[in-house]
Give the backbone structure.
Amino acid sequence: MTHQNIGPVLFIVGYDPGDHGWLQQSTWYRVFGPGQAMTLAGISVNYAYATEIARITNLLKAGLARWCILHRVSWSREFYILLELAKKYDCKITWDLDDNTIDPRITESAVHLNSATSGYKKRLQTHIAQQLRLLRLCDNAFFSTPELTEIASAHLRSSCTMWNYIPDFYDLQEDTLLESSWLPVIKDKFVIFYGPGSIDHMIHFDLIANTLSSFLMDHTNVTLLLGGGLPVPKIFLKFGEQIQRLPKVLPQTYFQLLKHVTVAVAPLKLDHFSSCKSWIKVLEPAYHGTVWLGSDSPNYRRFHEITGTGVLVRDQDWGLALQDVYSKISYYKKIARSACIHIKNEFSWSKKLSEYLQKRPN
């Protein structure tokens, strides 16, 4: 497919500059991933913070943006300014919400909000209502799961699903872990890894904490590696060096780490909120041929059915699943590594660029 008719593209990131938005994992997947694929295809691409209004205005005025893709932009003031600028300079707006939940029902069904105060839930409802109002003003929107696309389509018919894929430059990065002090800690060991997207995801880890504790007690040769800067839960302090904690690292370093672990676990509370989460946490290990175990959520199940990799687990079956994978690890590794080439060929942004561009607003 030729891309000569694709005008200059501007990715606008809604983090505050002080939040190091360019180092956020979601930015690498939803901004740099497709952005790099566009650049390699000869499409002009620029990047900006939503607060850089003067710079964005100059880019639009100079004709250096005909399609603006907003990521994590949910501040109403900047959003309305960007919409006015896009209208003035004849630029289309796509809002990429990834797997951010925009369903008002979340406060009624999400397990991780059970202990939230009524005030917090009310603020969340107000925020979601504001997002839905802003959504209706866009030309179209991208979501990384069909569940969210269906919800959004009631408010913006041009909403569509754009799955999560792996940025190509992840594979081009040198393995910085080879010289890292972390590699000897896990090298040649049976390592179980949990890497949450944020500290809020600790509620999902709690789902398997007791099971993992019992498993480590029965298998002293197993190491549990906690990523994402998570603190070590009290239940695991008694295991000493069996528990290792990875500090916050660059997204590509985290991605490289997955080559060196034995099993990656991706637990999710099976509620309405989790049913809308994307497949990224199982795609990451599968891309390296690493075995994964994940909760039987809709999009983990989709990925499992497409690739044949991984083990889907119901809430009460984590102990059985861990023991099965541990005792048959050679078998599961063979399956994961056999699918690795297919996954690298089919789940990178450069391979999916045509699909991405076909979904741009007219």
